[in-house]
Fold this protein.
Amino acid sequence: MIYYFCHVFIVYLLRKERLGFLLLALTPVIDLILLIITGLDLYRGATATSAHAISAVYIGVSIAFGKSIIVWADKRFRFYILKQGDKPIKRYGYDYARHYLKSWLKHALAYAIGIGCLFGLIYIVQDPERTEALASTIRWWSRILGIDLLITIAYFVWPKKAPQLT
């Protein structure tokens, strides 16, 4: 979210599109720095906390959803604030279900990246007592991904209906 607000401020309010694009392009570098700092903190003897686990989750979500979040927010900012462009469409029925499935696939990608980071951190530390918060995050995120899959399937079985105009 911080990236989006910086992007909006730089691109729309300061009218510096190249600088806004550069900052967005640096997002993976910032993510890598975050992962290195987290790994070094744990390697030096810190006990893993939820903050360490959230850094891995953040990296996965940032990589998988980053571009689509910016596109989604840009469309809304342009339409609702700047009064430019077309109104963002609302999806219903199988179109909504397919769109939600694409979102679930991004969630699965974020999960794979984040879980990979978490397992990497657990491997670096080699102490189950110090990495319990990381293992707990893996368990919770696995459940959340499963629930999200059930919701995705439900949208195909019971498609979202358009509101009734009366």
Q: What stands out?
A: Helices lie at 2-13, 17-25, 27-43, 50-81, 93-125, 132-157.
